[in-house]
Amino acid sequence: MKKREINRLIGDLAICFYSKYIKVSYASLNSILKDSGCAFKTNKELKKGVKAAYRYWENKDRVIHHALAYLFNDLAEAK
User: Could you tell me what percent of the chain has a pLDDT over 90?
Assistant: First the structure.
């Protein structure tokens, strides 16, 4: 998968979880991404991927951007 597709998938998952007030861990997210064929090798790489998705959505869709910040509290300081 291309980076843009991964950013979109992470954003789509974030809005789904956010709409049902579900919080997920990085490990759980990586398991879901693995089923989609785009798992990250380590949690450190996954965090970088989630931060990239956070920045990707910042000017495209503020709701998804906010959903990512809600799910992963450490993103707000990750600019």
Answer: 73
How far is the C-alpha of 21 from the C-alpha of 32, rounded, in Å?
17
Among 46, 20, 44, 23, smallest CA distance to 33 is for 46
How many of the other CB atoms lie within 10 Å of CB of 78? Answer: 14
Sign of CA dihedral 46, 23, 54, 73: negative
Pick from 67, 36, 63: nearest CA to 50 = 67
The reported pTM is 0.87
In angstroms, rounded to a whole number, what is the distance separating the alpha carbons of residues 39 and 61?
24
